[in-house]
Amino acid sequence: MTMIIGWDLGGANVKFASLENGRVAHVAQIPCPIVPERTKFDSAVDAALPLTSSPARHAVTMTGELSDVFNDRAEGVAYLVDLMEKVMSGQEVNIYAGSVGFLTPVGAKRRVMEVASANWHATAVYIARDHAEALLVDVGTTTTDLTPIKGGAIAARGATDAERLTEGELLYTGIVRTPVMAVAHSAPFRGRVQRIAAERFATMADVWRLTNELPDGADPYPAADQRGKSLEESAARLGRMLGRDSGDTELAEWVALARHFAHCQLAEIEHAARGLTERDGLVQSAPVIGAGCGRFLTRRLAKRLGRTYVDFGDLVNAAPQVRELASRCAPAVAVALLASACEAS
User: Fold this and answer.
1) I need a surface site. Which of 166, 260, 293, 322 has the fewest CB within 10 A?
2) Residue 3 to residue 23: CA distance in whole angstroms
3) What whole-number distance in Å separates Cα of residue 249 and Cα of residue 247?
4) Cα distance between residue 116 and residue 341, in whole Å
5) Which pLDDT value is given to residue 1?
6) Helices marked H in 14-167 — which ranges?
């Protein structure tokens, strides 16, 4: 059986999963260089290639076409498709196009809207094969995907990013890159509620670092002020959101402030999740399935919804030590498994 490698080309990182004899053997995530150039994708893929084996069949999904290094989605899709075809040197490359399935590189460039940001769809299709009803919640560094599954099929009403944003199935909130100003406009401090600065002084990575819940390796990106990532430096950035210096109070008070912003982010996700479960009438026994580096939030969400939590990594055939990364890189794993199923049929 041909080795299959699933790729998820994101604007912040490139993820891949190697599938050997139906088993997820290796998963990795390579950060894209923080440069305003499209060649950042080339660099990340080049860094990933030595970690993969060849020859292989490559199944590709993406969100990187949304990067502002491209003028529009069509340009982004074409660039990423051409990149994968070029670097794979004659190996088979199939591009995932949501409900359309897999396309050749030529076909993918003709179906831009189906190919663009279809990675969530791959994960949901894989989940729907074994779960008649569920709510898939993928909390990443930048966004949160919420996909209801009903009757063994995707019940999402949106397909494109614009439609999913409209339907509340895509939230631009994540545990690392989201600016703190995007989750709240005010905060309690010393017994009073005050407005916060509408500036990218701090990100949610600072918040979750201060609450001691940021997963290891989840934040490979520069801090908002290009400084370090100690608790004290995170507190300084959070203090700046209130127009204050970190020395104005003890670290414990900055941690309490971080917990407020953490609560605000979870509340936004919970509001969207409740809306979707009610809209689609998901039975109470339908589990919440968590994926992404922010799964610790999804576990908490499931508890608040009174639902069972299931981890994506536990749904794939992989060694225990591989499952953590499999969950973080769910779309790459899912697209490889879907390609394997197509090959078997």
Assistant:
1) 166
2) 10
3) 5
4) 22
5) 56
6) 39-48, 73-87, 105-110, 112-115, 119-128, 161-167
Structural domain total, the chain? 2
Strand, helix or coil for residue 177 = coil
Dihedral over Cα of 256, 261, 266, 267: its sign? positive
Q: What is the CATH number of the domain that holds 235?
A: 3.30.420.190
Residue with tokens 């890189």: 329
Q: Which residues of 199-235 are buried (b: 16+ CB within 10 A; e: fewer)?
A: ebbbbbbbbbbbeebbbeebbebebbeeeeeebebbb
pTM across the whole model: 0.96
Quote the pLDDT of residue 345.
58
> 17 with 127, same domain?
yes
Residue 273 in any domain: the answer is no
